[in-house]
Specification:
Layout (H helix, E strand, L loop, with lengths): L15 E5 L6 E2 L2 E2 L3 H15 L3 E5 L17 H11 L3 E3 L6 H8 L6 E3 L14 H8 L4 E4 L10 H5 L6 E3 L1 H15 L5 E5 L8 H7 L5 E4 L4 H7 L14 H14 L2 E3 L3 E5 L8 E5 L8 E5 L1 H12 L3 E5 L12 H12 L3 E4 L2 H9 L8 E2 L3 H8 L12
Helix pairs in contact: 1-2, 8-9, 10-11
Length: 393
């Protein structure tokens, strides 16, 4: 397995280090309401401080339109919050590459920290514009990328800078890449992959990739109904991707050919409408009423999936089993989460909605690894080269 170049291999003492972090956190009335992403970056920031680097942090926040400053997307509240966590001042530049940025950077002493304003205030960030990359690069001498959640984006501050400056992975980035690549390259068997979420189209590449690695693939969530259609079952008004029924059928055949168990639900919770107060019942997948939709896997399916997970030495989970945000349809996801929490093997959660569900059920501390990047982790598992990772391999 190609090892990623770590920040510990960089000579950073007395150097200006541009460090890309993922501070895309929720704000309410100018206050950070969930600082997990900020805390996840602390080991790298603290290491750079301890080595006497002049730390220049960059991040995006939200989806500004790229035409300049927008108050609701400013990183100023994040700078204040970070200063509290570090117990040290964080200088804030109210632009990205303008006079304020240069002044703030020039004012840094060894071991001090600054944060630039939201890189997406400049539309050239998302275009990975060469001129913008050069202007950003002029602020630093070394580039450290610790923003795994944005590693699948070929933007200036994630990929462009790595082509100009000596580039290294922060602790979070290295842990994400090494854990996920390790799982794919050298998993302990039995390896069980649990895939949920609403659409098969989002997971085709992931299923194909895991078909060559996993012993069992467990399917739940809205995507299971396209597979059930492929088996010739009727699914009422459940979510389906008609154009992918043949693809689902091919995947079922491929799994059989490769000796991979592909488990589908045996029962589902159906509802008369997509609403928290819907009328619900639990039915066999062979008896889904024509006028009802499946919104969760049923208890027998949970039992079946839990049995597979209990025997696993490696468990990877991405995507909920149902509409867990509504109490009436959370039991499937919660049951599978409990099975993963109880598993004796290594448990890896692929970010996104799975991580949100685990946090909702207060089970985060029972998992071995929870990825901070839903999209990035999926692309990596799919076998794609991430633009924010490739330059550091």
């Amino acid at each position: 397995m190609a090892s990623i170049r770590s920040v510990e291999q960089a000579d950073v003492a007395g150097k200006r280090v541009l460090c890309r972090v993922d501070f895309n956190v929720p704000l309410n009335e100018g206050k950070v309401t969930d600082d997990l992403r900020i805390r996840s970056a602390l080991p790298t920031i603290q290491y750079l401080i301890s080595q006497g680097a002049r730390v220049i942090l960059m991040s995006h926040l939200g989806r500004p339109d790229g035409t300049g400053y927008q108050a609701e997307f400013s990183l100023k509240p994040v700078a204040d919050h970070l200063a509290g966590l570090l117990g040290a001042p964080v200088a804030f530049a109210n632009d990205i590459i303008g006079p304020s940025a240069h002044e703030v950077v020039e004012g840094l002493a060894d071991g001090q920290v600054a944060l630039l304003e939201n890189v997406r205030f400049d539309k050239r960030e998302k275009k990975n514009d060469p001129e913008f990359c050069q202007e950003l690069a002029s602020l630093g001498e070394v580039f450290v990328n610790d923003a795994f959640g944005a590693a699948h984006r070929a933007h200036a501050s994630t990929a462009g800078l790595a082509e100009i400056l000596p580039s290294y992975a922060g602790y979070l980035m290295a842990k994400e890449v090494n854990t996920l690549k390790g799982m794919l390259d050298e998993p302990e068997h039995p390896f069980v992959a649990i895939l949920g979420g609403s659409k098969v189209s989002d997971k085709i590449g992931v299923i194909k990739s895991l078909m060559n690695k996993a012993d069992t693939i467990v399917v739940g969530g809205g995507m299971c109904f396209t597979f059930l259609l492929a088996q010739g079952k009727t699914i009422g008004t459940s979510l389906k991707e008609e154009e992918l029924v043949q693809t689902a059928s091919d995947l079922l055949a491929e799994a059989q050919e490769k000796g991979v168990k592909l488990l589908l639900p045996v029962d589902v919770v159906v509802a008369d409408k997509f609403a928290a107060d819907a009328r619900t019942e639990t039915v066999s997948v062979d008896a889904i009423p024509d006028d009802m939709m499946g919104l969760d896997i049923g208890p027998e399916s949970v039992k079946l999936y839990a049995e597979a997970v209990a025997e696993a030495k490696t468990v990877f989970w991405n995507g909920p089993m149902g509409v867990f945000e509504m109490p009436a349809f959370e039991a499937g996801t919660k049951g599978v989460a409990q099975a993963v929490a109880d598993a004796a093997g290594q448990t890896i959660i692929g970010g996104g909605d799975s991580a949100a569900a685990i946090n909702q059920f207060n089970m985060a501390d029972q998992m071995d690894f929870i990825s901070t990047g839903g999209g990035a982790s999926m692309e990596l598992v799919e076998g794609k080269v991430l633009p924010g990772v490739a330059p550091m391999l």
